[in-house]
Structures are given as C-alpha cells and as structure tokens.
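User: For a reading group we're discussing how well predicted structures match intuition. Take Peptidase M14 domain-containing protein. Before you show the prediction, I'll give you the sequence so everyone sees exactly what went in.
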Amino acid sequence: MSIQISAAFDSGNIRVVAIDGDTVDLEIVKDHESDFYQWFHFRVTGAKGRALTLRILNAAGSAYPFGWPGYKARWSADRESWRMTDTDYADGVLTIRHTCQMAITWFAYFAPYSMERHHDLVSRIALAEGVTHRQLGTTLDGQPIDCLTLGEGPKQVWLYARQHPGESMAEWWMEGALEFLTDEDNAVARDLRARATFHCVPNMNPDGSLRGHLRTNAAGVNLNREWHTPTPERSPEVLAVRNAMDETGVHFAMDVHGDEAIPANFLAGFEGIPSWTDALGEKFYEFGRRLAAHTPDFQTELGYDKSPPGRANLAMSTNQLAERFGAVSMTLEMPFKDHDANADSEFGWSPIRSKLLAHACLETLASMIDDL
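Assistant: Thanks. Here is the predicted 3D structure of Peptidase M14 domain-containing protein, as structure tokens, for the group to look at:
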C-alpha cells in the first residue's frame, strides 16, 4: 500500500513535495496573505508497520526557526492522546522519525484544538448554571466570536486566548479555566464567582484556527498588533472584543499564548506603558511570584525582555489594556517544547497540563482578587 498524506481538514496544514519509499518530503504552507508559517497538522495513511522519515524542507524559513532546536513533534493514533516523537533540526530541515503502528497516524506541531471542539466547549459551558453566552461579532470568514460570562462580583476579569491560532495550547488552557469556573463543587470557583465577573473568549481567531494558520486571521493580520486601532476590515475580532471590554471595564486580564522557543511557562507584563506605576506593576509581579509558589509548572526566571520606560507597544493587548483601563494585564506563554523545570519525557507540555495550569492561575487569582 502506498503512503498517503492529507491536511484537508479543520486546522490542517502541509504540502507534499515528494514520497520516496519511507521518506516523505514536506513543506508547511504560509498563512493566507502572510509570510508567517510554522504550524503543521496532517495525517498519514498506508504506513502501518513502516518506519517513516518525514522531512519538512522549509523549516528554516518559518516564523521562528530558533524554536526548532530541542523541539519534538506530536503524534496520535486516536486524536486524543498526543505524544512526542523523535525529531531533529539540521541544515534547515526539520526531520520527524516515527514507526506507525496503526492504519492512520496524525502529526501536529502541538495537540490540535479543532473548531468542532471549540463549538462543543462553548455549547457545553453555555448550558451551565449562571453562564451567559454572547456573540460579540463575526470574523472576516463569518464565524462567530463567542464570549462566555459568569460570576456576580464587582471585579471585571477578562480571559481570552488564541489570538495566534497555531498556539492551540491556549484553548486547552481556556477549556480548563471554564471547567474550573463552572464546577459547583469547587469552593474556590464559587468564591471567585462571588467576587468577580468573568468574561471568557476561548478563541479570538476562529478563521486562522480553521484555516491552519500559525499567527494570523483570514486577512493575514496578526491580531496582537491591532489593539490600538482595530478596524472592521482588518481585525473585526479585536474590535468586537475591545468594544465589549469598554462596556464592562477591566480589572484583570490574561491573554493566553504559546511560545516556540522558551522551554517554560512564563508571564509577560506591561512594562513601558506611558501610565506605568510601580504600584500597578507590583500587582503583576506578585501574581507571578504566587503562581510560581503554587505550581511546579510555572517559573519566573525565563521570559521575554521588558520594554524600556515609555516604549511599550500599545498595539499589543496586554499593554493596551493596562494603559486603557489601569488593569493588571498579562500575557501567559506556554511552550511548544516542555516546561523543563518539571519535564514529561513522553508527552512534553500537553493539553492536560495546560488545563491544570489554568486551575493554578485561577487559584492564584483567588488569593489576590480583592486587591486588584
């Protein structure tokens, strides 16, 4: 039986260059109207019992080639469990080696979070007691922008994920957060709902998610560079969410992402905004310290460089919300590799660990919500 490769499905992305025996040459397809690419997701059939060598030839030209060293591709036979497989990067080529045990084997940059699962999540959470669903707007492809609101407290908390669609761990995190917040047997969740109102946008970029993009929407626009002046033509997703935030105000905001290169979970803050104060910044730093003390799946040593005074990019959501609302605003980054300080040699960073990190974040928030 000959090997067959397909990416013609929700979030699929790959192009076949050549198949020679058990060696397959591939290329990742660029985001539409953009030069960004790094996300891949495809299936292989006709290879049961065969030791495959899958070579992604254009890895060197990807958005973040410095993220490939030390990275391991994910594979699955059932699309539920995603394990790491032998992967190396040399001479600009990412090589994935895997012996297929089943009739169909799936490969991806990280465990995918499909739009079908997104709709299942939104529908399930919308049925929970005390939850209100709103469609804030539509994308350029006509998909809904879903927001789930719960809680009765005065503090306004916004949780939003997947501005960059290929960072699928972000929506796994959101699934964990929503399950935590709607658990009637969870005393911490009940307390949080009494002290805060949560507005949750599980997927900021449905178009890019469905299309198999790494970083952009249907127009090839990076949504996390649109928060200063979003427009209906370029970034209706950001415009809809920011308008809703203007209606409620924001005390605390977390923008959930994934990072290609750093093998750790970390936070990025709003240093460099024009209205920075040490008092507001200390609340952000204290959240990070408490989170690191609460879970071995978080640390504060590794992360991004801080913007110098007055030089923050207000087109990025974390900076914009801190400046616009005086919010304790932050970006959570999770790894495509692993959280090396608490590594898992089989799964690496994974969906379940993303969900559990959401629980830890909310438990940490509960310890300081009144001080925001």
